[in-house]
Structures are given as structure tokens and as C-alpha cells.
């Protein structure tokens, strides 16, 4: 009887391990949907030819420490994850945009499919003159985040909105990069949202 119980436990652990491996990293997953992110546009079918990201909008996970570390330039929107390289493709500047008003308050919303202890959330925006016709680099962004929300190792709820002020003086097309930094792993989640003023 003991051998049967031990065998069942081994099988259960094997199935659990295979499930974790099949779904990528275990634990935290999330994306922004206000302003709508590129991965959400792919998942809801607004944008086609997206590859795997259409099924996994919550999985844009890469090394944390942005901007000093993290994904390489040109691979930021995909979190450095080659499976989601379509997110770094500028598509000739044709990603759909959310209209915002510079200098006004906005609710930046995250959706989480799994939660994790969190260091903070940071929001960056491109410099004036960015056209959206090339993959995002650090040089394209204002050097400091315009909004930082410390989270003190807490787990976020399934939906979380941060109220912040859009930087004044922004005109034309821009990209907002949202970075969710995980406290107890070496990773962060990345979401790029195309906007216009």
C-alpha cells in the first residue's frame, strides 16, 4: 500500500512539474490594458500576425533592473523574450494608439493572471519626436520614469489601477513603457502602449 501511495505522489509531482515547464515561469503574470498594451491588442485580435503573444499576453517577462539592466535595446517591448519578438516590431508606426491629454491625470491599469510579491511599478515615456518607426531603445525614453509606485513586497489584486499625471508638453505619437518589478525573482514584466497626444 505504501508503494502505491509513493508512486501516486511521484506521478502527481511529475505532472505538476510538467505543467510549470509547459507554461514558462511559475508565479506572476500580468499586462496593462489602460492604455492598451501591444500584447493585449494581439490577444484581443485587434492586431494580427502576433505569434505566441496572442495566447500569452501576461507572459512578457524579462530581466529586472531597467534601465540600468533588463532587456537589450530593441528588445524592450518583448522583455528580451524572443518568443514575443513581434512586440518589438514597429510595424511601420502602425500600432493602434490610445489618445491621451498631456498634463492630465490618467488611470494606468494592470490585469494579473497570477500575482507575486512586488517591488514597484514604473512608467516611462518616449521623448518628443519619437515616430514609432523603429524598435524601442533606452535613448528613445525620457531618462526618469514619470510615475513610480512603490509596492513594498506586497501582492497586487487581480486588477490594479495607478493614478498618475501624464507629463506636460508631450505632442504627437509616443510609447509608454510600464515595468512591473518582482520582489522575489530576478525578473520584471514589461508592457508597451502606443499613445498619441
TrEMBL record:
Residues 29-195 form the Chitin-binding type-4 domain. The keyword Metal-binding does not apply. Residues 1-22 form the signal peptide. CDD domains: LPMO_AA10. It comes from the Bacteria. Pfam families: LPMO_10. The keyword Protein biosynthesis does not apply. Keywords: Signal. PANTHER family: CHITIN-BINDING TYPE-4 DOMAIN-CONTAINING PROTEIN (PTHR34823:SF1), GLCNAC-BINDING PROTEIN A (PTHR34823). This is Chitin-binding protein. It comes from Streptomyces vietnamensis.
Amino acid at each position: 500500500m505504501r508503494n502505491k501511495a509513493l508512486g501516486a505522489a511521484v506521478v502527481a509531482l511529475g505532472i505538476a512539474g510538467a505543467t510549470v515547464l509547459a507554461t514558462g515561469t511559475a508565479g506572476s503574470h500580468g499586462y496593462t490594458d489602460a492604455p492598451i498594451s501591444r500584447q493585449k491588442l494581439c490577444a484581443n485580435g485587434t492586431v494580427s500576425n502576433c505569434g505566441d503573444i496572442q495566447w500569452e499576453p501576461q507572459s512578457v517577462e524579462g530581466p529586472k533592473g531597467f534601465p540600468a539592466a533588463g532587456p537589450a535595446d530593441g528588445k524592450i517591448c518583448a522583455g528580451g523574450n524572443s518568443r514575443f519578438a513581434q512586440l518589438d516590431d514597429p510595424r511601420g508606426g502602425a500600432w493602434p494608439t490610445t489618445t491621451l491629454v498631456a498634463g492630465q491625470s490618467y488611470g494606468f491599469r494592470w490585469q494579473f493572471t497570477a500575482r507575486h510579491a512586488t517591488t514597484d511599478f514604473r512608467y516611462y515615456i518616449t521623448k518628443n519626436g519619437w515616430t514609432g518607426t523603429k524598435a524601442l531603445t533606452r535613448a528613445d525614453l525620457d531618462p526618469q520614469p514619470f510615475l513610480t509606485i512603490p509596492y513594498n513586497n506586497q501582492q497586487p489584486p487581480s486588477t490594479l489601477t495607478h493614478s498618475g499625471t501624464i507629463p506636460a508638453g508631450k505632442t504627437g505619437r509616443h510609447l509608454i513603457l510600464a515595468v512591473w518589478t518582482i520582489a522575489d525573482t530576478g525578473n520584471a514584466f514589461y508592457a508597451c502602449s502606443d499613445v498619441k497626444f
